[in-house]
Amino acid sequence: MPIVVRIDVELAKRKMSVGEFAERVGLTPANVAVLKNGRAKAVRFSTLEAMCRVLNCQPGDLLEWVEE
Question: What Pfam families is this protein classified in (predicted)?
Answer without folding.
Answer: HTH_26
